[in-house]
Amino acid sequence: MAGLKDSLDALLEETEKSFLLAGIDSAKREAWWLFRDLLPEWSGIKGTEKKLSVLEQKRIKEAVSRRIKREPLAYISGEKGFWNDSFKVDKSTLIPRADSEALIELFLKMVPDKNISASILDLGTGTGCLLLSILSERIKMFGIGTDIVPNAIFLAQENAKNLDLLERSEFVVSDWGRGIERQFNFIISNPPYIKTTDIKSLMPEVALFEPSSALDGGKDGLDCYKLILERARKMLLPEGKIFFEIGEGQGREVCTIAESLGFSLLGQQDDLTGKERALVFCCQKK
Questions:
Q1: Segment 222-245, tens digit of pLDDT
Q2: Which of 13, 66, 196, 264 fits as disulfide partner to 71, beta carbons 3.0 to 4.6 Å?
């Protein structure tokens, strides 16, 4: 940005232009959301001649500078909406995405009893958004979220506290459930599923800023599915179910892996764009 302007409208217009020059998609919408996050008292309607304080102008300038470098808006604001709530995020975790809500939709469809008393294990919990969203919908369930990144565990605990779900959740550092001795009614996971060679070609917001440990699924993008399914039978109670988020076009391959390890497909769910995004399996009876 060439210089600071103290009128909100003028600064918003200048920000839109800066985002366009930086190649940011939906520049007007991105600028609007940035201002809404930084100026909570703003109504969100243009046409105001509100004068910004020097401190407000400085905060906006710093945030715009970060966004121009393609840092995701969620990392700048420190939060992201998902399902029915807002979750704190930082660079230790993947940013929650609307695509992942397909897993929530599938879970609620397969487990319709709102008062079910059951246990759930979330492998690779990140912000805790999947586990905590399910716990908010199934009010008698208890869940454990695991992640190999300690900072992610601290963040998930903070989100659980903010949503008044600490009493029904626990978060532990673990490599895909290693060290978890108990069994669960349900397992959920959104594992890394991007092929290693594809990561550099992702949007800069993803490739440059989101943690590679949450993206890199190995040579074929399927490494974590194989590992989780190999361990899942011991972690599931009889009649238990395991739910996965999957990458675009991975459904058949994940099903093949699951079937080879003794699991049967029970159902699937598309995301908002019509792409197959979530699968649920159960253990085949011996």
A1: 999 999 999 999 999 999 999 999
A2: 66
